[in-house]
Specification:
Elements (H helix, E strand, L loop, with lengths): L8 H9 L3 E2 L1 E7 L2 E7 L2 E5 L4 E7 L13 E6 L5 H8 L14 E2 L7 E2 L4 E13 L2 E13 L7 E2 L8
Antiparallel strand pairs: 1-11, 2-3, 2-6, 4-5, 5-10, 6-9, 7-8, 9-10
């Protein structure tokens, strides 16, 4: 039987919020500047070549760094990764040090890999498209690894119309 309240805005928001996602810290670099942000709308979107999609709020300044050819890293937040969530949850303005106090690995021109992450993927932007209040960025995965045993964080929101 279908719930009679299914057509209410609150019901729609609750139902949309039940779409599970992971939690990730996207790290990016532009010249010598680097930053990181918490991301939840990430999904594998191709096997061959391996690619992921990342939906970024248009208000995020780091979005402007993710032009075609730019490299970014998706750090998979581990189950129980409250320290990473708290650190990156509020976001960072560009120019504010985002990685102070964290163990990171930096190689050449690759954005930081968070050593506390469950796993990471290094990606190169191959395209993007505006989708309402977000931009969908497609990244071709070039390398990655699992850093720790365990599971990734699974995120379910109470309201699918806001963070």
């Amino acid at each position: 039987m279908i719930d009679a309240t299914a057509d209410t805005p609150d019901s729609l928001a609750a139902a949309l919020g039940r779409i599970p996602s992971g939690l990730f810290v996207l790290t990016a670099r532009s010249g010598d500047a680097e930053s990181g942000m918490l991301a939840s709308w990430v999904q594998q979107c191709s096997f061959d070549p391996p690619q992921v999609s990342v939906a970024l709020n248009n208000a995020r300044a780091v979005r402007d760094w993710l032009t075609d050819g730019a490299v970014f890293v998706l750090n998979v937040v581990p189950e129980g990764g409250k320290t990473l969530i708290a650190h990156f949850g509020k976001g960072f303005e560009l120019g504010v040090p985002a990685f102070e106090g964290l163990d990171v690995k930096r190689e050449r021109d690759t954005p930081p890999v968070l050593l506390a992450a469950h796993a990471y993927l290094v990606c190169r932007v191959v395209g993007s498209i505006a989708v309402g209040d977000h931009t969908l960025v497609i990244g071709r995965v070039t390398t990655g690894a699992v850093l720790h045993d365990g599971k990734p964080t699974v995120h379910v929101r109470k309201n699918g119309l806001k963070y």
